[in-house]
């Protein structure tokens, strides 16, 4: 009490008050350091740029390709501030697309299918002659619920046209907002019927053309499955490029339900997108007596919170699969890729939040066993991002766009130099075409084959 009377307490309070600003400054500095640490970890700012990890057998063709495709052997440099985050790369691709997206002009083609469905694709002519002087067409299969109007497709088509490639882009069945379904089914994970119809049309319309098959994400599964279903599907195909696919739906379904890398959140977002797309075609899917979809299926659709639930209640029934496992097994390209004999470039990113890293053992093993397969794995790029840039702003063309065309160019030059110029542009052309006069295959590939 004496000390208080003497003013000792006031001195203590005064001393404490003088220390408070320093304490608050220390808390602020700690909080700032924590935020900066979290930002650096989330954005992977300390991760140095590196070249892709390329897996392949040592053959004359692979040596030639790696020599002629420097993008596969030199550093991929994403934008410094955000490009090393797979989430930001994926989100930017999904929401913004590309910088200064061009609008290539094409012609839409409609193809009647054997079951009453109407497939469609857009055809874009080359803007210049190809460097080899050959007629070459890119046959392109977009990603999940995508079509020729998606910005990453438009950017890639414009770049390919300017390098001398004609482009044919499949519009997934049900994906176009202004085109109604004419049969009670939509695109599925691995149905190749529409892609086969487009390829058949291109072969008949341009008898001298050679093909480069390109698939993005889900489209990569469809393209690889198409080539492996029947050796005849590889006639006149120079090569194939697959970007950011998961190879096995059966193995991917479990990883897509995990919270690791926020994969469950991406699953929910894609579920809502697919749900809205299916409901927009509700009348077409229910209004035909041959439909396998019931009101109960649509009720389960509305309650779905994952792609797996939609696949089980709706998607597998388009082709009459008895179970979800059967649907995933039959529609995954992993069952067919060992039958693909043309040069095959498989590209993935380690930080792709949609494709679990365990799935990448499939293309790596394939490249180690098959001389025609090259597997390129980048450290960064996200899902179909692969933006390039200096610090903040990305370039209009992505690493992905340039690599695909560079690889196709190398294959075209390899074939051009290997074959006599007086011969047909590809020796397989002498085998002739298997299309019927109207441009449809004589026998449609069975999805359960």
Automatic annotation (TrEMBL):
It catalyses: hexadecanoate ester + H2O = an aliphatic alcohol + hexadecanoate + H(+); an acetyl ester + H2O = an aliphatic alcohol + acetate + H(+); 2-(5Z,8Z,11Z,14Z-eicosatetraenoyl)-glycerol + H2O = glycerol + (5Z,8Z,11Z,14Z)-eicosatetraenoate + H(+); a butanoate ester + H2O = an aliphatic alcohol + butanoate + H(+). The active site is at residues 217, 352, 383. One of its GO terms (biological process) is medium-chain fatty acid biosynthetic process. It is an enzyme of class 3 (hydrolase). It is found in: Cell membrane. Its main location: membrane. PANTHER family: ABHYDROLASE DOMAIN-CONTAINING PROTEIN, MONOACYLGLYCEROL LIPASE ABHD2. It is a single-pass type II membrane protein. This is Monoacylglycerol lipase ABHD2.
């Amino acid at each position: 009490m004496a000390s208080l009377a003497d003013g000792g307490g006031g001195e203590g309070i005064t001393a404490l008050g003088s220390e408070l600003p320093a304490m608050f400054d220390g808390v602020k500095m700690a909080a700032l350091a924590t935020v900066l640490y979290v930002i650096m970890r989330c954005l992977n700012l300390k991760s140095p740029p590196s070249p892709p990890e390329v897996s392949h057998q040592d053959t004359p063709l692979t040596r030639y390709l790696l020599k002629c495709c420097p993008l596969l052997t030199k550093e991929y440099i994403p934008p410094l501030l955000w490009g090393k985050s797979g989430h930001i790369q994926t989100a930017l691709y999904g929401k913004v697309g590309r910088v200064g997206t061009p609008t290539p002009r094409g012609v839409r083609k409609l193809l009647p299918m054997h079951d009453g469905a109407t497939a469609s694709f857009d055809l874009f002519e080359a803007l210049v002659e190809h460097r080899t002087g050959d007629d070459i067409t890119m046959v392109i299969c977009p990603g999940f619920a995508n079509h020729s109007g998606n910005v990453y497709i438009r950017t890639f088509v414009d770049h390919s046209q300017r390098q001398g490639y004609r482009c044919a882009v499949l519009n997934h069945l049900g994906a176009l907002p202004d085109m109604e379904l004419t049969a009670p089914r939509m695109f599925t994970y691995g149905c190749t019927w529409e892609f086969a119809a487009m390829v058949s049309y291109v072969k008949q319309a341009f008898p001298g053309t050679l093909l480069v098959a390109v698939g993005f994400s889900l489209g990569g599964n469809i393209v690889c499955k198409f080539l492996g279903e029947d050796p005849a599907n590889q006639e006149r195909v120079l090569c194939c490029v697959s970007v950011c696919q998961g190879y096995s739906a059966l193995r991917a379904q479990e990883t897509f339900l995990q919270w690791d890398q926020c994969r469950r959140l991406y699953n929910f977002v894609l579920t809502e997108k697919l749900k809205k797309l299916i409901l927009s075609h509700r009348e077409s899917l229910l209004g035909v007596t041959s439909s396998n979809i019931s009101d109960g299926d649509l009720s389960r659709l509305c309650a779905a919170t994952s792609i797996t639930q939609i696949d089980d209640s709706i998607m597998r029934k388009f082709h009459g699969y008895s179970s979800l496992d059967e649907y995933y097994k039959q529609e995954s390209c992993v069952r067919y890729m060992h039958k693909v004999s043309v040069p095959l470039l498989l590209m993935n990113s380690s930080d792709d939040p949609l494709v679990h890293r365990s799935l990448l053992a499939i293309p790596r093993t394939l490249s180690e066993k098959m001389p025609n397969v090259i597997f390129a794995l980048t450290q960064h790029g996200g899902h179909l991002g692969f933006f390039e840039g200096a610090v903040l702003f990305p370039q209009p063309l992505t690493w992905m766009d340039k690599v695909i065309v560079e690889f196709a160019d190398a294959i075209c030059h390899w074939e051009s130099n290997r074959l006599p110029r007086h011969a047909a542009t590809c020796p397989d052309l002498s085998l002739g075409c298997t299309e019927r006069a109207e441009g449809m295959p004589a026998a449609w590939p069975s999805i359960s084959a």
